[in-house]
Amino acid sequence: MRYCCPTSIEEAVAILNTDEDARCLAGGATLVAMLNAELLSPSTLVSLRAIADLDGIRHTDSGITIGAMTRHAVVANDQRLNNGLTVVRLAAQEIGHPAIRAVGTIGGAIAHADPSADYPTALLAANAEVEVIGSSGARTVPAGDFFQDYFTTALAHGEMITSIHLANADPGTVSSYFKVARSDGDFAITSMAFCGNFDGSTCTAARVAVGGCASTPLNVTAVDKMLIGAELGSDQVTMAAQALADACDPIDDVRGSADYRRLLVKRLLPRVLQRAIDQGSN
Amino acid sequence: MKALDGIIGQSVPKLEARAKVTGTAVYTDDMFRPRMLTAALLGSPYPHARILSYDTAAALALPGVKTVLTAEDLPPNLIGHTFRDEPILARSKVRYMGEPVAAVAAESLDIARAALRLIEVEFEELPAVFEAEDAMAEGAPILHEDLGNYARVVESPFDGNVVAHIELETGNVDSVWEECDVVVENEYSIPAAQHLYMETCSALAEVDGTGKITVWSSTQQLFGTQMAVAQALGLPMSKVRCIAPSVGGGFGAKFITIEPITAALALKTRRPVKLVLSRDEDMISMRSRHAAKIRMKTGARKDGTLLARDTEIVYNGGAYADFSPVVLEAGMLLAAGPYRIPNARNVGRAVYTNRLRAGAMRGFGVMQPMFAGESQLDELADTLGIDRLDLRIKNAKQSGDKNMGSHYLPVCRVGDCLASIRAHPAFILAAADKGVLGKRRGIGISSVVQQSGLFSSSANIRLAEDGTLIVSTGYIDIGTGSDTSLAQVAAATLGVDIEAVNIVAPDTDGAVYDYGTAADRGAHGVSESVHRAALEVKERLIELTAEILECATADVELRPGGKLGLSGVPDIELSFADVAQRGLYVGGGPIIGQHAWYMQEQTIDPKHTRALGFRMGGGVFYGFAATAVHIEVDETTGQITVLEAWHAADLGRVLNPNGALGQLYGGVVQGISGALMEELVWDSGQLVNPTLMDYKIANSLDAPPEIHGILLENPDPDSPWGARGMAEPCIIGAAPAIANALADATGVRIRTLPLTPERVLMGLIAHED
Predict the structure, then answer these.
(1) Mean pLDDT of B303-317
(2) Lower CB count within 10 Å: N or C terminus of chain B?
(3) Among all residues of chain B, which has the CA nearest to that of A94?
């Protein structure tokens, strides 16, 4: 296995396009574990650690851009991620343990595309855009299109993630994230993320994402629409929760059964809505 | 005397703490030898299959491969703790998926692993059986056709797949049910769980020019390992030397692991060989706690007096006997719990199945029936309308009582353990906190008993030229702090500073004998041995001093700081060094003390208890404890959070308070972990969660923010300073306490572990309907 450490995005892309079987190495929290388990044996590891442009959180007029190599710990502690973007910070706080958050990166986490991981669900609710670059140039992929299947993304061969862009939300947007897991820091049995607006306890805009319940994090437009005008505690919320559970396609695994996951989806929706309202009133 | 033994009861920091924290402690995997090879094992792809043939030619031809071993290359010897039923590589058939079938030694781990993929083994798959009940059914596939021919250390009836069968009865259970005002009967289920020591099993073996093999390994049993290596390879023990470097935990699993096969590879290649299991290899092929199915029935009078308990347990022993017969004995001896129950019957079986072998684990055989018994006691209390603590205290065994089999209990303060928790200020506050709708809270309690201390120990102490002590026991500190407390015992007996005590690293070529780090033996038999050996040193010191001072031995006194003097004359004083050197260079010889110890075996009194299949009769002491938890139940998700925990240990005398509390905290958290999330899951014989991503254990944030440790001192008459071990009972009580707290908070009773959020939520929903 070859190891290289390019110092520019262009150089990294060039390597990815000359070597059929090269893989990007970001923080290594996931990839190295897979190498150790002999699940992967790439011909070349392209370490991204020396590319300064990929690291850090930038605040711009249009929103916040998180570099692909930004560590979970940095995102977890960035207070600029508030209101509608709090969900991303909360998700980062829930990833693994301090040691994992010190090495793992947002780009590495979403490239892995585990539907039970924290970032994919949160970024889907936040309607994030994934900035990718390849030999034919840069493009932007909405989170909803980026996650395509279990451990499968919209990244084409030779492409890599450069950053995640979070557009400024409407004023008054609130958000929340909640995960049910077997132990602290574990992957989700089921997780749920919410971004939206409320007028009192009535929802006026909603974007809900569910993790751990399908091959990708799940956002159901019809459910988001059902929530508009719904008052917390009303039958309308219950119906939306049922519709969301119906749209899930979970599996049975050691973390929990498909039935339990569907049940959680129904029961968690009121909670994430309430938490978002609580966040707004704080 | 008080000044001499002032170190007893002091929180002396662990001797090796600095080395471990700074990363300088040497574990087996840290060791390298010149020309060392690396080994890897090939696991069976079937849970039960006949081995028809091997083809290792391609693997042997791979550059860098030095040898490939299969059972055909090894002597046909079997090993085992209770039955010798286990080959070091599968012979003629495999009995669980992942069972080692072949071993490779190569120039690197990559080459060794590549070689494994080139080994071809032809199997004929056999019908397999995974659940103990199925394995006992007529027509079930038989795992060990030669069961009757195995050499056995433990005698117990066996038949088919039943490894051992024990029945014990005190009183007459069947005759008293009609006298009971209330009878509760239920079934309980405990899953297989794993030890999850931080350091996976590791061994390094080297053969010297005389043909003697030295094995360094991560073990909790030095001499048993030496014997197993010798037996497996057909060598005299004089040709096998075992050494334990730093060991990263064991919890009962590291009793003969991969040392014999590593030694076989070294013997074949005549080069040093290291074998370190990966986490998944370790989880697939080492040991688990016994899964158990329990049917239990308890009856009482209206006033809460317990009259009868009937317990039937089936332990799933997995593919090899290992410690199953002894685990079964412990469960049978103690299934009635720490209570006075005049009529008690315990019937148990341990059964072979095509799963990973089950072996010793902290809470040895007892954790399973205690979960059932302590759950059932709350069910009984609720039916009777009696306070759960009152019911326990009313029926608690007392000092001077007898246990099943008529075993004498000189000290028993289980009632005081319960009372001390009840009186704890934080517990009083917690008991009043019922939470809020949707996040209800409850408290749960349990009291438990564990029988501890087994077989033989010994100690040898020599006084060095400078008056310091060289203490050898062969007991392995696997992280429990035993080296420190044994040093305290030696220091206290002779009145020296702890810095003057050298605890010798365990090495069969130097150490005297010890059975192993198990059953809370360190604070009891090993301490006793060190104490007695030190007393012998003291006697020699006094004799020689009397010669030097030309006085009677009765006029010589030991003084703090390693000094001896003439009684009543402070100015006349000699140091240990003076006396040691006198012995070495003038006359009297080296000053050496030693002691050999065997447990006071308690046998079954047939007038008291009718017994079938029970050999051991048990060891030396019984440990008692009580555990309580305050939990919150998330009624939306089913998640349980342990908010606070209490554990009161009836431990005789505290040798090292911080050491004791460290064991207590660790045991309680490991118990909480087992209660809430641990379960090995198999699918058609394949372990589906052999990684720490799929098999979770509690981490620091899953542990309650506060665990109140209560150390109740009441010296044991049979132990130096009255100390008893206390690290086993503290794991046992958490699971029933949490199940009881769940029932307290929500009314939902769950009799199957672990108490996963899914199981709890399904229980809550069923309870609402």
Answers:
(1) 98
(2) C
(3) B701
Write down the domain spans for chain B.
17-24+455-598, 31-126+201-276, 354-451+620-768
- pLDDT tens for B144-166 read 999 999 998 877 788 899 999 99
Transcribe B534-588 into DSSP letters.
HHHHHHHHHHHHHHHHTS-GGGEEEETTTEEEETTEEEEEEEHHHHHHHHHHTSS
Domains of chain A: 55-167 (3.30.465.10), 179-281 (3.30.390.50)
Contact A267 B637 (CB under 8 A): yes
Average pLDDT of A211-228? 98
Confidence class for position B707, pLDDT limits 50, 70, 90: very high
Are B100 and B285 in contact by the 8 Å Cβ rule? The answer is yes
- Provide the Cα torsion B160, B164, B170, B176; round to 10°: -40
Model confidence at B60, pLDDT cuts 50, 70, 90, reads very high
Adjacent-strand bridge partners of B176: none
Q: State both tokens at A244.
A: 């969301």
Contacts of A33 in chain B (CB under 8 A): 693
Q: What's the rounded Cα separation, in Å, for the pair B85 and B232?
A: 12
* CATH hierarchy code of domain B31-126+201-276: 3.90.1170.50
Tell me the one-letter amino acid at B533: A
As a whole number of angstroms, the distance between CA A281 and CA B61 comes to: 72
CB atoms within 10 A of CB B87: 23
Report the residue of B637, B693, B694, B702 to disrupt the A interface, i.e. the one with the largest count of A CBs within 10 Å: B637
CA dist B728 and B153 (Å) reads 24
Query: Quick check: B218 pLDDT over 80?
Result: yes
Asked if B637's CB is within 8 angstroms of A264's CB, the reply is yes
Kindly indicate the confidence band of residue B404, based on its pLDDT and cuts at 50, 70 and 90: confident
A179 to chain B: closest CA residue: B637
Domain with residues B17-24+455-598, CATH architecture:
2-Layer Sandwich (3.30)
* A97, A189, A254, A261, best to mutate vs chain B, most B CBs in 10 Å: A254
pLDDT tens by residue, B320-337 = 999 999 999 999 999 999
Nearest to B520 by CA among B699, B371, B649: B649
Put simply, whether A264 touches B (Cβ < 8 Å) is: yes
Question: pLDDT category, B1, cuts 50, 70, 90?
Answer: very low
pLDDT in tens, B522-563: 988 999 999 999 999 999 999 999 999 999 999 999 999 999
| Most distant CA pair in chain A, distance | 58
The pLDDT, as a whole number, for residue B616 is 65
How many other C-beta atoms are found inside a 10 Å radius of the C-beta of residue B146?
A: 10
Q: Can B17-24+455-598 and B31-126+201-276 be said to share one CATH topology?
A: no
Q: Give the whole-angstrom CA distance, residue A222 versus residue A220.
A: 5
Angle at A80 between CA A26 and CA A199, to 5 degrees: 125
CB B42 within 8 A of CB B101: yes
CATH of domain B354-451+620-768: 3.30.365.10
